[in-house]
Design a protein that fits this description.
Blueprint: E1 17-20, E2 28-34, E3 37-47, E4 52-56, H1 60-67, H2 72-79, E5 81-82, E6 89-92, H3 93-99
Parallel strand pairs: 3-6
Antiparallel strand pairs: 1-2, 2-3, 3-4, 3-5
Length: 119
Amino acid sequence: MRYHYEKPTIYLSRYGQLYICNHPVYNRCTLFKIGDKGLAVIQQRFNPETKSTYWSELDPWLTDDLYLNPNFKNYFDERAGECTDGLYSTVTVRQIMWSLKMKPIPKERWETTFDRRDI
C-alpha cells in the first residue's frame, strides 16, 4: 500500500497557471482561478548550494490531480478570494492535499510548516 503520493510516469499540466507576485513569503506560485476568485498554492524547495529553502510554484505533475479532485471545488469556494494588492489567498501543497484527502507527497527533513491557516 502506498503511503505517499507518487509522481506519475505520464502527466499533463492543463490546470493552474504560474503567477508572479510580490508576496512576503514567495514570489512565484501556482494560481487556480475561477471567475474573479483565485487560490495560490505553493510548494517548498531546497537549494543544496546555499542550504536554504524557498517557496515557489507546484510541480507540474501535481496541478491536474489537485484541480480534478472531486473535493477541489468545495475547498476552492471556501478558501479562494479576490485579488487584493496583487495577492490571492494562499495555501501550501500539504494543506490542500490533506484537505482533499489525498495522500501527501513525501516530507523532507528540511521542510517547514505554517502554524496558521492563512499565509
